[in-house]
Amino acid sequence: MDFKNAVAVKVAEATGLDVSEVNRLVEIPPQEDMGDFAFPCFVLAKTMHKAPNMIASDLSESDQMSAEWLSKVEAKGPYLNFFVDRGAYAKEVLSEVLSKGTSYGQSEEGEGKTVIVEFSSPNIAKPFHVGHAFTTILGHSLSRIYEKLGYKVVRMNHLGDYGTQFGKLITAYRLWGDEEALEKDPITELLRIYVKFHEEEKNDPELTVSARENFKKLEDGCEEEVALWQKFRDMSLVVFEQLYKRMGVTFDNYNGESYYAKMADQVVAMLKEKNLLIESEGAQVVDLEEYGVPPCIILKSDGTTIYGTRDIAAILYRDEKYHFDKNIYVVGIPQALHFKQVFSTLKKAGYACADKCEHVGFGLVKFQNMKFSTRDGNIVLLEELLDESVAKTYELIKANAETRKSDMSDEELREIAEKVGLGAVIYTYVKAGRERDIVFSWDTMLDFEGDTAPYLIYTYARTRSILRKAKEQGFEPVGSGSVLLNKLDGDEEFACVKALADLPDAIRKAAGSNEPFMVSRAVAGIARAFNRFYNNCSILGGEDAELKTARLAMCEAVCDAIETGTYLLGISVVEQM
After folding, report:
1. Which of 181, 336, 342, 473 is deepest in the core (most CB within 10 A)?
2. 114-275+303-360: which CATH topology?
3. Would residue 144 be called left, alpha or beta, if left means φ above 0 and alpha means ψ between -120 and 50 degrees?
Protein backbone atom coordinates (compact mmCIF):
# COMPACT_ATOMS: atom_id res chain seq x y z
CA MET A 1 0.00 0.00 0.00
CA ASP A 2 1.24 3.46 -0.94
CA PHE A 3 0.29 5.51 2.13
CA LYS A 4 1.10 8.84 0.50
CA ASN A 5 -1.21 8.01 -2.39
CA ALA A 6 -3.86 6.77 0.05
CA VAL A 7 -3.72 10.16 1.79
CA ALA A 8 -4.03 11.86 -1.60
CA VAL A 9 -7.10 9.77 -2.43
CA LYS A 10 -8.72 10.78 0.87
CA VAL A 11 -8.14 14.49 0.20
CA ALA A 12 -9.26 14.19 -3.43
CA GLU A 13 -12.52 12.48 -2.44
CA ALA A 14 -13.26 15.16 0.13
CA THR A 15 -12.37 18.18 -2.02
CA GLY A 16 -12.94 17.18 -5.63
CA LEU A 17 -9.33 17.85 -6.55
CA ASP A 18 -7.49 15.55 -8.97
CA VAL A 19 -5.60 12.77 -7.16
CA SER A 20 -2.41 13.38 -9.10
CA GLU A 21 -2.48 17.09 -8.17
CA VAL A 22 -3.01 16.26 -4.50
CA ASN A 23 -0.24 13.65 -4.61
CA ARG A 24 2.10 16.33 -5.87
CA LEU A 25 1.18 18.63 -2.98
CA VAL A 26 1.30 16.10 -0.13
CA GLU A 27 4.39 16.72 2.01
CA ILE A 28 6.40 14.94 4.67
CA PRO A 29 6.31 17.21 7.76
CA PRO A 30 9.70 18.34 9.11
CA GLN A 31 8.85 17.18 12.65
CA GLU A 32 7.28 13.93 13.87
CA ASP A 33 4.70 15.69 16.06
CA MET A 34 3.27 17.25 12.90
CA GLY A 35 2.27 13.87 11.53
CA ASP A 36 3.52 11.53 8.85
CA PHE A 37 1.95 13.31 5.88
CA ALA A 38 0.59 16.83 5.44
CA PHE A 39 -1.58 18.54 2.87
CA PRO A 40 -1.35 22.35 2.47
CA CYS A 41 -4.85 23.76 2.00
CA PHE A 42 -3.84 27.01 0.25
CA VAL A 43 -4.85 25.60 -3.15
CA LEU A 44 -8.46 25.24 -1.91
CA ALA A 45 -8.90 28.83 -0.72
CA LYS A 46 -10.24 30.19 -4.02
CA THR A 47 -12.72 27.40 -4.73
CA MET A 48 -14.00 27.03 -1.14
CA HIS A 49 -13.91 30.77 -0.43
CA LYS A 50 -12.39 30.22 3.01
CA ALA A 51 -9.09 30.81 4.71
CA PRO A 52 -6.73 27.81 4.41
CA ASN A 53 -6.65 27.27 8.18
CA MET A 54 -10.48 27.08 8.31
CA ILE A 55 -10.49 24.59 5.42
CA ALA A 56 -7.93 22.42 7.24
CA SER A 57 -10.04 22.52 10.40
CA ASP A 58 -13.22 21.53 8.58
CA LEU A 59 -11.56 18.68 6.72
CA SER A 60 -9.97 17.31 9.89
CA GLU A 61 -13.46 16.83 11.38
CA SER A 62 -14.90 15.20 8.25
CA ASP A 63 -15.93 11.53 8.38
CA GLN A 64 -14.24 11.13 4.98
CA MET A 65 -10.87 11.44 6.73
CA SER A 66 -11.26 8.28 8.81
CA ALA A 67 -9.65 4.95 7.90
CA GLU A 68 -8.31 1.85 9.66
CA TRP A 69 -4.78 2.79 8.70
CA LEU A 70 -5.07 6.30 10.18
CA SER A 71 -4.76 6.96 13.90
CA LYS A 72 -5.83 10.62 13.59
CA VAL A 73 -6.11 13.62 11.28
CA GLU A 74 -5.70 17.11 12.69
CA ALA A 75 -5.40 20.67 11.49
CA LYS A 76 -2.30 22.70 12.19
CA GLY A 77 -2.77 26.17 10.78
CA PRO A 78 -3.30 25.84 7.00
CA TYR A 79 -2.05 22.24 7.00
CA LEU A 80 -4.05 19.03 7.28
CA ASN A 81 -1.83 16.55 9.11
CA PHE A 82 -2.24 12.79 8.84
CA PHE A 83 -0.97 10.36 11.46
CA VAL A 84 -0.84 6.75 10.24
CA ASP A 85 -1.58 3.83 12.52
CA ARG A 86 1.91 2.62 13.34
CA GLY A 87 1.04 -1.05 13.57
CA ALA A 88 -0.85 -1.05 10.28
CA TYR A 89 1.96 0.92 8.65
CA ALA A 90 4.61 -1.51 9.90
CA LYS A 91 2.64 -4.50 8.69
CA GLU A 92 2.08 -2.99 5.24
CA VAL A 93 5.67 -1.82 4.65
CA LEU A 94 7.44 -4.86 6.09
CA SER A 95 5.13 -7.25 4.27
CA GLU A 96 6.08 -5.63 0.99
CA VAL A 97 9.82 -5.77 1.72
CA LEU A 98 9.68 -9.36 2.97
CA SER A 99 7.63 -10.56 0.00
CA LYS A 100 9.91 -8.90 -2.54
CA GLY A 101 13.30 -9.43 -0.86
CA THR A 102 16.07 -7.82 -2.88
CA SER A 103 13.50 -7.04 -5.59
CA TYR A 104 12.15 -4.36 -3.23
CA GLY A 105 11.91 -1.02 -5.03
CA GLN A 106 11.68 -2.66 -8.43
CA SER A 107 9.12 -1.24 -10.85
CA GLU A 108 7.99 -1.46 -14.46
CA GLU A 109 7.88 2.27 -15.15
CA GLY A 110 10.67 1.92 -17.72
CA GLU A 111 9.21 -1.09 -19.49
CA GLY A 112 9.66 -0.85 -23.25
CA LYS A 113 12.09 2.08 -22.94
CA THR A 114 15.81 2.09 -23.65
CA VAL A 115 18.40 4.13 -21.78
CA ILE A 116 21.95 4.39 -23.06
CA VAL A 117 24.52 5.18 -20.37
CA GLU A 118 27.94 6.19 -21.67
CA PHE A 119 30.54 6.06 -18.92
CA SER A 120 34.16 5.30 -18.05
CA SER A 121 35.56 5.94 -21.57
CA PRO A 122 39.29 5.81 -20.76
CA ASN A 123 41.98 6.66 -23.28
CA ILE A 124 43.75 3.71 -24.82
CA ALA A 125 47.39 3.31 -23.78
CA LYS A 126 47.00 5.58 -20.75
CA PRO A 127 46.66 4.69 -17.05
CA PHE A 128 43.27 4.36 -15.39
CA HIS A 129 43.31 7.01 -12.67
CA VAL A 130 40.94 8.17 -9.94
CA GLY A 131 39.30 10.67 -12.29
CA HIS A 132 38.14 7.79 -14.49
CA ALA A 133 36.71 6.17 -11.36
CA PHE A 134 34.18 9.00 -10.96
CA THR A 135 32.54 8.39 -14.34
CA THR A 136 32.90 4.62 -13.99
CA ILE A 137 31.26 4.41 -10.55
CA LEU A 138 28.50 6.93 -11.34
CA GLY A 139 27.68 5.31 -14.67
CA HIS A 140 27.69 1.81 -13.21
CA SER A 141 25.32 2.88 -10.44
CA LEU A 142 22.96 4.73 -12.79
CA SER A 143 22.84 1.68 -15.06
CA ARG A 144 21.68 -0.49 -12.17
CA ILE A 145 19.19 2.12 -10.97
CA TYR A 146 17.55 2.38 -14.38
CA GLU A 147 17.44 -1.41 -14.68
CA LYS A 148 15.75 -1.55 -11.27
CA LEU A 149 12.99 0.62 -12.71
CA GLY A 150 12.44 -1.68 -15.67
CA TYR A 151 14.40 0.14 -18.36
CA LYS A 152 16.49 -1.68 -20.93
CA VAL A 153 19.96 -0.30 -20.28
CA VAL A 154 22.78 -0.24 -22.83
CA ARG A 155 26.16 0.37 -21.21
CA MET A 156 28.51 2.18 -23.59
CA ASN A 157 32.25 2.56 -23.11
CA HIS A 158 33.21 5.26 -25.61
CA LEU A 159 36.93 4.53 -25.71
CA GLY A 160 39.43 7.25 -26.52
CA ASP A 161 41.03 5.17 -29.27
CA TYR A 162 41.49 7.69 -32.06
CA GLY A 163 43.53 10.79 -32.73
CA THR A 164 47.01 12.09 -33.33
CA GLN A 165 48.37 10.47 -30.17
CA PHE A 166 48.32 7.13 -31.98
CA GLY A 167 50.62 8.49 -34.64
CA LYS A 168 52.95 9.50 -31.83
CA LEU A 169 52.68 6.08 -30.19
CA ILE A 170 53.47 4.25 -33.41
CA THR A 171 56.55 6.41 -33.95
CA ALA A 172 57.64 6.02 -30.33
CA TYR A 173 57.12 2.25 -30.37
CA ARG A 174 59.26 1.82 -33.49
CA LEU A 175 62.04 3.89 -31.98
CA TRP A 176 62.09 2.89 -28.30
CA GLY A 177 59.51 0.15 -27.71
CA ASP A 178 60.44 -2.82 -25.54
CA GLU A 179 58.35 -5.81 -26.63
CA GLU A 180 59.01 -7.77 -23.44
CA ALA A 181 57.98 -4.82 -21.27
CA LEU A 182 54.91 -4.28 -23.42
CA GLU A 183 53.75 -7.86 -22.93
CA LYS A 184 54.40 -7.72 -19.19
CA ASP A 185 52.77 -4.34 -18.43
CA PRO A 186 51.28 -2.72 -21.56
CA ILE A 187 49.99 0.53 -20.05
CA THR A 188 53.23 1.32 -18.23
CA GLU A 189 55.34 0.66 -21.34
CA LEU A 190 53.05 2.63 -23.66
CA LEU A 191 53.01 5.52 -21.21
CA ARG A 192 56.80 5.42 -20.96
CA ILE A 193 57.36 5.70 -24.70
CA TYR A 194 54.59 8.30 -25.06
CA VAL A 195 56.22 10.51 -22.43
CA LYS A 196 59.62 9.96 -24.05
CA PHE A 197 58.20 11.02 -27.43
CA HIS A 198 57.10 14.37 -25.99
CA GLU A 199 60.49 14.89 -24.35
CA GLU A 200 62.41 14.10 -27.53
CA GLU A 201 59.99 16.01 -29.77
CA LYS A 202 61.08 19.31 -28.22
CA ASN A 203 64.50 18.95 -29.81
CA ASP A 204 63.61 16.89 -32.89
CA PRO A 205 60.89 18.32 -35.17
CA GLU A 206 61.20 15.26 -37.42
CA LEU A 207 59.41 13.23 -34.76
CA THR A 208 56.34 15.45 -35.19
CA VAL A 209 56.43 14.93 -38.94
CA SER A 210 56.77 11.15 -38.48
CA ALA A 211 53.84 11.06 -36.07
CA ARG A 212 51.61 12.93 -38.52
CA GLU A 213 52.59 10.60 -41.33
CA ASN A 214 51.87 7.54 -39.21
CA PHE A 215 48.46 8.84 -38.16
CA LYS A 216 47.64 9.60 -41.81
CA LYS A 217 48.59 6.01 -42.67
CA LEU A 218 46.37 4.80 -39.84
CA GLU A 219 43.46 6.87 -41.18
CA ASP A 220 44.09 5.51 -44.66
CA GLY A 221 43.95 1.94 -43.34
CA CYS A 222 47.58 1.00 -43.99
CA GLU A 223 48.04 -2.56 -42.78
CA GLU A 224 51.12 -2.16 -40.56
CA GLU A 225 49.89 0.97 -38.75
CA VAL A 226 46.39 -0.47 -38.25
CA ALA A 227 47.91 -3.67 -36.82
CA LEU A 228 49.97 -1.69 -34.28
CA TRP A 229 46.94 0.43 -33.32
CA GLN A 230 44.86 -2.72 -32.84
CA LYS A 231 47.63 -4.25 -30.72
CA PHE A 232 47.79 -1.22 -28.43
CA ARG A 233 43.99 -1.16 -28.15
CA ASP A 234 43.64 -4.86 -27.39
CA MET A 235 46.40 -4.81 -24.78
CA SER A 236 44.89 -1.78 -23.06
CA LEU A 237 41.47 -3.39 -22.94
CA VAL A 238 42.88 -6.47 -21.22
CA VAL A 239 44.22 -4.23 -18.44
CA PHE A 240 40.99 -2.22 -18.21
CA GLU A 241 38.89 -5.39 -18.12
CA GLN A 242 40.81 -6.68 -15.10
CA LEU A 243 39.92 -3.51 -13.21
CA TYR A 244 36.30 -3.56 -14.39
CA LYS A 245 35.95 -7.18 -13.30
CA ARG A 246 37.32 -6.36 -9.86
CA MET A 247 34.72 -3.59 -9.50
CA GLY A 248 31.86 -5.63 -10.95
CA VAL A 249 31.49 -3.24 -13.90
CA THR A 250 30.32 -4.52 -17.29
CA PHE A 251 29.66 -2.99 -20.71
CA ASP A 252 27.51 -3.91 -23.69
CA ASN A 253 29.47 -1.90 -26.21
CA TYR A 254 33.07 -0.71 -26.60
CA ASN A 255 32.64 1.40 -29.75
CA GLY A 256 35.19 4.17 -29.37
CA GLU A 257 36.05 7.25 -31.35
CA SER A 258 37.65 5.15 -34.08
CA TYR A 259 34.32 3.44 -34.74
CA TYR A 260 32.52 6.72 -35.36
CA ALA A 261 35.38 8.42 -37.22
CA LYS A 262 34.40 6.58 -40.40
CA MET A 263 30.90 8.10 -40.09
CA ALA A 264 32.14 11.68 -39.76
CA ASP A 265 31.96 12.33 -43.52
CA GLN A 266 28.24 11.47 -43.42
CA VAL A 267 27.73 14.07 -40.68
CA VAL A 268 29.54 16.71 -42.75
CA ALA A 269 27.48 15.83 -45.81
CA MET A 270 24.24 16.01 -43.84
CA LEU A 271 25.05 19.43 -42.38
CA LYS A 272 26.07 20.73 -45.80
CA GLU A 273 22.83 19.46 -47.31
CA LYS A 274 20.88 21.33 -44.64
CA ASN A 275 22.96 24.49 -45.33
CA LEU A 276 24.09 24.65 -41.71
CA LEU A 277 27.85 24.85 -42.27
CA ILE A 278 29.46 28.27 -42.43
CA GLU A 279 33.12 29.24 -42.67
CA SER A 280 34.86 30.75 -39.66
CA GLU A 281 38.60 31.43 -39.75
CA GLY A 282 39.04 28.65 -42.28
CA ALA A 283 37.04 26.12 -40.29
CA GLN A 284 33.52 24.84 -41.02
CA VAL A 285 31.16 25.47 -38.10
CA VAL A 286 27.47 25.44 -37.20
CA ASP A 287 26.28 28.75 -35.79
CA LEU A 288 24.36 28.20 -32.55
CA GLU A 289 23.65 31.78 -31.49
CA GLU A 290 19.92 31.07 -31.10
CA TYR A 291 20.77 28.47 -28.46
CA GLY A 292 23.06 30.80 -26.55
CA VAL A 293 26.21 28.74 -27.13
CA PRO A 294 29.34 29.27 -29.27
CA PRO A 295 29.55 27.73 -32.75
CA CYS A 296 30.21 23.99 -33.01
CA ILE A 297 33.31 23.22 -35.08
CA ILE A 298 32.68 20.40 -37.55
CA LEU A 299 35.76 20.63 -39.80
CA LYS A 300 39.06 22.18 -38.76
CA SER A 301 40.88 24.54 -41.10
CA ASP A 302 42.93 21.64 -42.48
CA GLY A 303 39.73 19.80 -43.42
CA THR A 304 39.89 17.14 -40.68
CA THR A 305 37.06 16.32 -38.29
CA ILE A 306 37.22 16.64 -34.50
CA TYR A 307 35.65 14.73 -31.64
CA GLY A 308 32.52 16.88 -31.75
CA THR A 309 31.84 15.62 -35.26
CA ARG A 310 32.34 12.06 -34.08
CA ASP A 311 30.00 12.60 -31.12
CA ILE A 312 27.27 13.74 -33.50
CA ALA A 313 27.87 10.62 -35.60
CA ALA A 314 27.65 8.48 -32.45
CA ILE A 315 24.28 9.94 -31.45
CA LEU A 316 22.81 9.37 -34.91
CA TYR A 317 24.14 5.81 -34.92
CA ARG A 318 22.71 5.09 -31.46
CA ASP A 319 19.35 6.59 -32.35
CA GLU A 320 19.09 4.41 -35.45
CA LYS A 321 20.29 1.24 -33.71
CA TYR A 322 18.65 1.51 -30.28
CA HIS A 323 15.83 4.08 -30.70
CA PHE A 324 16.80 5.32 -27.25
CA ASP A 325 14.51 7.18 -24.88
CA LYS A 326 17.54 8.60 -23.05
CA ASN A 327 21.16 8.91 -24.10
CA ILE A 328 23.16 9.79 -20.99
CA TYR A 329 26.79 10.97 -20.96
CA VAL A 330 28.52 10.58 -17.60
CA VAL A 331 31.36 13.00 -18.27
CA GLY A 332 33.05 15.69 -16.15
CA ILE A 333 31.53 19.15 -15.74
CA PRO A 334 34.25 20.84 -17.88
CA GLN A 335 32.70 19.13 -20.94
CA ALA A 336 29.27 20.74 -20.37
CA LEU A 337 29.72 23.32 -23.13
CA HIS A 338 30.88 20.70 -25.61
CA PHE A 339 27.73 18.66 -25.10
CA LYS A 340 25.52 21.74 -25.36
CA GLN A 341 27.12 22.45 -28.73
CA VAL A 342 26.70 18.86 -29.95
CA PHE A 343 23.08 18.56 -28.78
CA SER A 344 22.20 22.02 -30.14
CA THR A 345 23.73 21.19 -33.51
CA LEU A 346 21.54 18.10 -33.78
CA LYS A 347 18.49 20.06 -32.67
CA LYS A 348 19.15 22.73 -35.30
CA ALA A 349 19.52 19.97 -37.87
CA GLY A 350 16.02 18.81 -36.97
CA TYR A 351 16.77 15.61 -35.06
CA ALA A 352 14.27 14.87 -32.26
CA CYS A 353 16.82 12.63 -30.52
CA ALA A 354 18.72 15.78 -29.50
CA ASP A 355 16.19 16.38 -26.72
CA LYS A 356 16.72 12.84 -25.42
CA CYS A 357 20.44 13.39 -24.79
CA GLU A 358 21.64 14.38 -21.33
CA HIS A 359 25.04 15.34 -19.96
CA VAL A 360 25.50 14.07 -16.40
CA GLY A 361 28.43 16.07 -15.05
CA PHE A 362 30.51 15.50 -11.93
CA GLY A 363 33.13 17.29 -9.85
CA LEU A 364 36.83 16.88 -9.17
CA VAL A 365 38.76 14.38 -7.07
CA LYS A 366 41.01 15.70 -4.31
CA PHE A 367 43.06 14.10 -1.55
CA GLN A 368 43.56 14.95 2.10
CA ASN A 369 46.87 13.85 3.62
CA MET A 370 47.15 10.93 1.22
CA LYS A 371 50.29 9.97 -0.67
CA PHE A 372 50.65 7.40 -3.42
CA SER A 373 53.61 6.19 -5.42
CA THR A 374 52.41 6.68 -8.98
CA ARG A 375 54.24 5.61 -12.08
CA ASP A 376 54.46 9.02 -13.69
CA GLY A 377 54.47 11.29 -10.66
CA ASN A 378 51.35 13.37 -11.26
CA ILE A 379 48.33 11.06 -11.14
CA VAL A 380 46.82 8.68 -8.63
CA LEU A 381 46.12 5.31 -10.19
CA LEU A 382 42.76 3.80 -9.30
CA GLU A 383 44.29 0.37 -8.82
CA GLU A 384 46.71 1.77 -6.24
CA LEU A 385 43.86 3.50 -4.43
CA LEU A 386 41.83 0.28 -4.31
CA ASP A 387 44.83 -1.77 -3.15
CA GLU A 388 45.58 0.70 -0.38
CA SER A 389 41.96 0.79 0.75
CA VAL A 390 41.76 -3.01 0.85
CA ALA A 391 45.06 -3.26 2.74
CA LYS A 392 43.98 -0.74 5.38
CA THR A 393 40.58 -2.44 5.71
CA TYR A 394 42.26 -5.81 6.19
CA GLU A 395 44.32 -4.48 9.09
CA LEU A 396 41.22 -3.04 10.75
CA ILE A 397 39.06 -6.16 10.48
CA LYS A 398 41.97 -8.44 11.36
CA ALA A 399 42.57 -6.50 14.58
CA ASN A 400 38.85 -6.64 15.34
CA ALA A 401 38.73 -10.38 14.67
CA GLU A 402 41.67 -10.95 17.01
CA THR A 403 39.96 -8.90 19.73
CA ARG A 404 36.77 -10.94 19.37
CA LYS A 405 38.80 -14.17 19.04
CA SER A 406 37.00 -14.91 15.79
CA ASP A 407 37.59 -18.25 14.10
CA MET A 408 37.54 -16.76 10.58
CA SER A 409 40.48 -17.80 8.40
CA ASP A 410 42.90 -15.31 6.90
CA GLU A 411 41.45 -16.08 3.46
CA GLU A 412 37.97 -15.16 4.69
CA LEU A 413 39.28 -11.94 6.24
CA ARG A 414 40.94 -10.99 2.96
CA GLU A 415 37.76 -11.68 0.98
CA ILE A 416 35.84 -9.44 3.36
CA ALA A 417 38.54 -6.75 3.17
CA GLU A 418 38.33 -6.77 -0.63
CA LYS A 419 34.58 -6.10 -0.62
CA VAL A 420 34.65 -3.56 2.21
CA GLY A 421 37.76 -1.80 0.90
CA LEU A 422 36.34 -1.45 -2.61
CA GLY A 423 33.00 -0.39 -1.14
CA ALA A 424 34.71 2.33 0.88
CA VAL A 425 36.16 3.87 -2.28
CA ILE A 426 32.95 3.50 -4.30
CA TYR A 427 30.77 5.02 -1.57
CA THR A 428 33.03 8.07 -1.39
CA TYR A 429 32.01 8.88 -4.97
CA VAL A 430 28.26 8.42 -4.43
CA LYS A 431 27.66 9.66 -0.87
CA ALA A 432 26.97 13.25 -1.98
CA GLY A 433 25.69 15.11 -5.03
CA ARG A 434 27.77 14.23 -8.09
CA GLU A 435 28.67 17.84 -8.89
CA ARG A 436 30.44 18.25 -5.55
CA ASP A 437 34.18 17.67 -5.43
CA ILE A 438 35.39 14.46 -3.78
CA VAL A 439 37.91 14.78 -0.96
CA PHE A 440 39.49 11.46 0.00
CA SER A 441 40.47 10.90 3.62
CA TRP A 442 41.25 7.46 5.02
CA ASP A 443 39.93 8.41 8.47
CA THR A 444 36.59 9.36 6.92
CA MET A 445 36.11 6.64 4.34
CA LEU A 446 37.10 3.75 6.64
CA ASP A 447 35.10 4.92 9.64
CA PHE A 448 32.87 2.03 10.71
CA GLU A 449 30.56 4.45 12.53
CA GLY A 450 30.28 7.24 9.97
CA ASP A 451 28.52 7.83 6.67
CA THR A 452 30.58 5.18 4.92
CA ALA A 453 30.34 1.86 3.11
CA PRO A 454 32.02 0.06 6.04
CA TYR A 455 29.19 1.31 8.28
CA LEU A 456 26.52 0.05 5.88
CA ILE A 457 28.23 -3.29 5.33
CA TYR A 458 28.85 -3.76 9.06
CA THR A 459 25.17 -3.00 9.79
CA TYR A 460 24.16 -5.65 7.26
CA ALA A 461 26.62 -8.21 8.71
CA ARG A 462 25.53 -7.46 12.29
CA THR A 463 21.88 -7.93 11.35
CA ARG A 464 22.62 -11.21 9.60
CA SER A 465 24.43 -12.32 12.74
CA ILE A 466 21.32 -11.57 14.83
CA LEU A 467 19.20 -13.68 12.48
CA ARG A 468 21.68 -16.58 12.64
CA LYS A 469 21.80 -16.42 16.43
CA ALA A 470 17.98 -16.34 16.60
CA LYS A 471 17.77 -19.42 14.41
CA GLU A 472 20.16 -21.25 16.71
CA GLN A 473 17.78 -20.39 19.58
CA GLY A 474 14.81 -21.72 17.62
CA PHE A 475 13.32 -18.37 16.57
CA GLU A 476 12.44 -17.45 12.97
CA PRO A 477 11.12 -14.13 11.58
CA VAL A 478 7.38 -14.00 10.99
CA GLY A 479 6.41 -14.01 7.33
CA SER A 480 4.97 -11.37 5.06
CA GLY A 481 1.40 -10.42 6.00
CA SER A 482 1.60 -11.69 9.58
CA VAL A 483 -0.66 -9.84 12.03
CA LEU A 484 2.25 -9.95 14.48
CA LEU A 485 3.91 -7.18 12.47
CA ASN A 486 1.30 -4.84 13.97
CA LYS A 487 3.22 -5.12 17.23
CA LEU A 488 6.04 -2.97 15.81
CA ASP A 489 4.62 0.37 16.91
CA GLY A 490 7.40 1.75 19.14
CA ASP A 491 9.25 4.97 18.29
CA GLU A 492 12.49 3.30 17.14
CA GLU A 493 10.60 0.60 15.27
CA PHE A 494 8.41 3.14 13.52
CA ALA A 495 11.42 5.24 12.51
CA CYS A 496 13.06 2.17 11.01
CA VAL A 497 9.93 1.19 9.10
CA LYS A 498 9.60 4.73 7.73
CA ALA A 499 13.21 4.62 6.55
CA LEU A 500 12.51 1.33 4.77
CA ALA A 501 9.42 2.82 3.13
CA ASP A 502 11.49 5.70 1.70
CA LEU A 503 13.77 3.52 -0.43
CA PRO A 504 11.56 2.95 -3.52
CA ASP A 505 10.89 6.68 -3.86
CA ALA A 506 14.61 7.41 -3.45
CA ILE A 507 15.36 5.02 -6.32
CA ARG A 508 12.85 6.78 -8.57
CA LYS A 509 14.24 10.20 -7.65
CA ALA A 510 17.80 8.99 -8.26
CA ALA A 511 16.87 8.09 -11.83
CA GLY A 512 14.87 11.28 -12.32
CA SER A 513 17.84 13.47 -11.42
CA ASN A 514 20.66 11.05 -12.33
CA GLU A 515 21.86 11.31 -8.71
CA PRO A 516 22.89 7.98 -7.12
CA PHE A 517 23.47 9.77 -3.82
CA MET A 518 19.70 9.76 -3.27
CA VAL A 519 19.96 5.98 -2.94
CA SER A 520 23.05 6.18 -0.71
CA ARG A 521 21.27 8.69 1.53
CA ALA A 522 18.21 6.42 1.81
CA VAL A 523 20.29 3.33 2.63
CA ALA A 524 22.33 5.27 5.18
CA GLY A 525 19.03 6.39 6.75
CA ILE A 526 17.91 2.77 7.05
CA ALA A 527 21.19 1.76 8.67
CA ARG A 528 21.11 4.63 11.17
CA ALA A 529 17.48 3.97 12.08
CA PHE A 530 18.13 0.26 12.57
CA ASN A 531 21.17 0.86 14.75
CA ARG A 532 19.15 3.22 16.98
CA PHE A 533 16.52 0.50 17.24
CA TYR A 534 19.20 -2.11 17.97
CA ASN A 535 20.73 0.03 20.73
CA ASN A 536 17.40 0.87 22.39
CA CYS A 537 15.29 -2.25 21.93
CA SER A 538 15.94 -5.87 22.85
CA ILE A 539 15.58 -8.13 19.82
CA LEU A 540 16.35 -11.55 21.26
CA GLY A 541 15.66 -10.77 24.90
CA GLY A 542 12.36 -10.37 26.71
CA GLU A 543 9.46 -12.73 27.35
CA ASP A 544 7.23 -11.74 24.42
CA ALA A 545 8.01 -14.40 21.80
CA GLU A 546 5.60 -12.88 19.28
CA LEU A 547 7.28 -9.47 19.50
CA LYS A 548 10.65 -11.19 19.16
CA THR A 549 9.66 -12.88 15.88
CA ALA A 550 8.17 -9.62 14.59
CA ARG A 551 11.39 -7.76 15.33
CA LEU A 552 13.34 -10.50 13.58
CA ALA A 553 11.14 -9.91 10.55
CA MET A 554 12.21 -6.26 10.62
CA CYS A 555 15.84 -7.41 10.77
CA GLU A 556 15.21 -9.51 7.67
CA ALA A 557 13.63 -6.54 5.89
CA VAL A 558 16.54 -4.27 6.84
CA CYS A 559 18.98 -6.78 5.34
CA ASP A 560 16.98 -6.95 2.11
CA ALA A 561 16.82 -3.16 1.84
CA ILE A 562 20.50 -2.57 2.57
CA GLU A 563 21.54 -5.27 0.10
CA THR A 564 19.20 -3.75 -2.49
CA GLY A 565 20.54 -0.23 -2.02
CA THR A 566 24.23 -1.11 -1.87
CA TYR A 567 23.88 -3.22 -5.02
CA LEU A 568 22.48 -0.19 -6.84
CA LEU A 569 25.56 1.76 -5.76
CA GLY A 570 27.92 -0.99 -6.94
CA ILE A 571 28.85 -2.17 -3.43
CA SER A 572 28.84 -5.76 -2.19
CA VAL A 573 27.79 -6.81 1.32
CA VAL A 574 29.31 -9.55 3.49
CA GLU A 575 27.55 -12.04 5.74
CA GLN A 576 29.92 -11.60 8.67
CA MET A 577 32.76 -9.35 9.79
Report:
1. 342
2. Rossmann fold (3.40.50)
3. alpha
The total of other beta-carbon atoms located within 10 Å of residue 40's CB is 15
Domains 3-84 and 114-275+303-360 agree in fold: no
What is the CATH code of the structural domain delimited by 382-569? 1.10.730.10
Contacts of 97 (CB under 8 A, 6+ apart): 104, 500, 557, 560, 561
Contact (CB, 8 A) for 194 and 172: yes
Question: What predicted TM-score, i.e. pTM, was given to this entire model?
Answer: 0.92
Helix then strand then coil, % of the chain, to nearest 5: 60, 10, 30
DSSP single-letter state for residue 324: -
Burial of 269 (0-12, 13-18, 19+ CB in 10 A): exposed
Q: What pLDDT score was predicted for residue 369?
A: 62
What is the C-alpha to C-alpha distance for residues 147 and 120, in angstroms, rounded to an integer? Answer: 18
Phi-psi category of 377—alpha, beta or left, where left has phi over 0 and alpha has psi -120 to 50?
A: left
**pLDDT, tens only, 228-266:** 999 999 999 999 999 999 999 999 999 999 999 889 999
Burial of 343 (0-12, 13-18, 19+ CB in 10 A): buried
pLDDT of residue 74: 93
CA-CA distance, 548 to 467, in Å (whole number)?
11
262 vs 507: which has the higher pLDDT = 507
Residue range 260-291, pLDDT digits in tens: 988 999 999 999 999 999 999 888 999 999 99
Please give the pLDDT value at position 64: 87
Cβ-count burial 427-449 (b if 16+ within 10 Å, e if not): bbbbbbebeeebebeeeebbebe
Dist CA 464 CA 34 (whole Å): 35
**pLDDT tens-place string over residues 187-205:** 999 989 998 998 999 899 8
Sign of the alpha-carbon dihedral angle for 103, 512, 142, 418: negative
- The topology under which CATH files domain 3-84 is Gyrase A; domain 2 (3.30.1360)
Domain parsing of the chain, residue ranges: 3-84, 114-275+303-360, 382-569
Q: Are 124 and 161 in contact (CB under 8 A)?
A: yes
Q: What residues contact 109, with CB distance under 8 A and at least 6 apart? A: 149, 150, 508
pLDDT, tens only, 559-575: 999 999 999 999 999 99
Which sequence positions are flagged as catalytic?
Answer: 126, 129, 132
Residue 198 CB burial class (10 angstroms; 0-12, 13-18, ≥19): exposed
